[in-house]
Amino acid sequence: MDKEPGKGKTFIALLIQHITMAQISSSAAVLAYYTLLSIFPAVMVVGNLLPMIGIDAKTILAYLSTAIPESVYSFIQPLIYDFLRRGSGGILTTGALIALWSTSQGIAAFQRSVNHAYGIAENQNPVMNRIVSFIWMIVLLVITFIIIILYGFGEQVLKSIQPIFNFRRDYILLFSSLRWPVTFGVLFIALALLYYFVPNAKVRLRYALAGSFLASLLWMGLSRLFSFYTLLFSHGVISYKTIGAFIAMMVWLDFSGYIIMLGAALNAALQECHEGELHAKKHFWQLVERKNKNGG
What we know:
The protein has eleven helices and no strands. With 296 residues, it is mainly α.
């Protein structure tokens, strides 16, 4: 991959190359597996935190229904609503531990897959890899919590400041109805952070944003398309009720993994096409190890 920007392979050829390098099929399956493991423990944790900040579970479900196919949502909605309404210290602790493990495993798997897409070898030891995955899991949880607070209290905040700034009450109704743009924005920001910071490659932000936009758009489209598909074949797999809905959820998670990895491959292809050779970024612990070796 040692070449000047814009020379050699075309963008399409580079995209195909990075898609192949990413091993999208196996990577998507791994991401779907760890996502499934982390969903309900994470919901347990959120459900125990909601009463502390005064947000109704229905507020969370309203945004969740926008990003998830209807057939999958109808399957998990009762479970998630029950988890969100009830909570205890024991469930919080257990859910937090399981969510920490499964989410960090998922992020570590995502990092390996994205590194393959960029053609960058692993340049950190397993211990540091786990630490970095854990840190990113904490960052994502904090961002999610902030977003929940923002859109859970957003309407109340607007109502309280409306008499002060004297703006039209229609804006409050508009804010409450913007579930699609809000969900798209949340996906876009979360994916941009993952695409930019998680890979071991030196990623430029403008290319990470391109993949984030495409992946968010495809993800939202997948949910609508998947709902339409299950509606057409509602007398087939979905007629098996719980088992059918579970299968539908796994298929949707697998396709979601495809989309996420496609976004990563697009980022890598765009950057290589415009910037030339892709380089690994240097971590501070590698510099320390090198300094110690030279000193020794």
